[in-house]
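Changelog note: in this version the structure field was regenerated for every chain. One regenerated record is shown below for reference.
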Amino acid sequence: MSGETTVRSWIRRRAVPAAAAVVTVAAGLSVRSVLGGDLAKYAGDALYALLIFWLVLVVAPRTRAWVAAIVAFGVSAAVELFQLTGVPAELGAHSTLARLVLGTTFNAPDLPFYAVGAASGWALHRIARAVRAGRRRRTSVRPR
C-alpha cells in the first residue's frame, strides 16, 4: 500500500464523521433559536451526545458504532455528574467555551436525552453503512 493510498484511506474514514460533527455543532448552536424552553434544552442534550459519538469515530474510525454510542453516553453522563462538583459552573463563569462544553448545573433529566443522542448516532451510522453497501452492490453488478 503506497503512502498516498494510506493518506487517502485515513482521510476517507474520518471525513464523514467529521462532516457529521460539523453539522451537529451547527444544529446544536442553532436549536435554541428555533425551538424554545425544555424542547430546546433536551434537543441540545441529545445533540451533545451525538457530537461526542461523531468525535469518537473521527479519532478512532474503526470503532464499532455500538462502542462509540456507549462512549458518547458515558462521556456525556460523566460531564453531567462533574457538574455536581461546581467546577464547571466556576469555569463557565469565566469562559463561554467552558460553559458550552461542560455546562454549569447538574440536571438528572438530561441523562436519558444523552442516551437518545448516542442511540441516534448508532442508528445514523447503521443507515449510512447500509446505504454505502447498497451503492457498492449496485456498482459491482454490471449489465451484460
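Spot check on this record: The chain is about 85% helix and 0% strand. The mean pLDDT is 90.
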